[in-house]
Structure formats: structure tokens, C-alpha cells
TrEMBL record:
Any Pfam family: DUF4440
Domain DUF4440: 10-114
InterPro entries: DUF4440, NTF2-like_dom_sf
The name this protein goes by in its record: NTF2 superfamily protein
Amino acid sequence: MSRSDETYLRKQNQIFESLFNTNELESIMQLFEEDAMLLLPGVPLIRGRSAILETFRFMKTKIDKISNHTEEIHISGITAIEVGHYQHFDLNGKPLDEGKFLVVWKKVAGAWLISKDSVSSNGR
């Protein structure tokens, strides 16, 4: 595992959080593969940047801020697995949800992109 790749992926997670929190949802899409998948509790599989963007726009009507924390990253070749936990907050800063996430990153043309993004609520 390359330490620089791990550092880069941790930074990408911070960028994702910052872009969501400042409502720059279109910019987040540059972190995803074109045919990426988003797996959320209670809804069918969401596939592709445009569908993920629409989902994030809907989520943003309820979630003002997110906080992500990476626990560990495992890298093997052109694939990386990131595991962590998250919190979501409403417009008043009150916690809405917390849970875990697992992200599969793929290195495509030298760039790390999100291939699969899965979250699991702790049922808050």
C-alpha cells in the first residue's frame, strides 16, 4: 500500500465532506466513476453520476452538514477499500443520523474515483 495513495484518499474524503456541506453537489460528481453505484438503506441501488447527483440534491433538502471519519483504508493494486463512520446534521445543527460507510475506490487513468459507496445507518 502506498502511503501517498492512502493520504490522497483521506484528503478526497475531506473534499467530499466540504463540497457537500457547501452545497457544491455537482463538483462531488467528479469524485465518482461515470457508472458508480450508491447503496443507501431502504432504497433501490442508485447507478450513475446523474442519478447520484439527484439523490444528493434530495438528501440536501433534509441534511445540512455531514461529518465523515475514515477508520481505515486497504489498497491492493488499482482498488482501495475505505471504511469509516459518519454523522448527518439538520439545519439547526442537530444530529439526524449516524452510521458506517464502505467505499470502493478504483484507480482510473491514474486518478482515484469512487466506484461503490455504501452507507449503513445505526438507526438513530
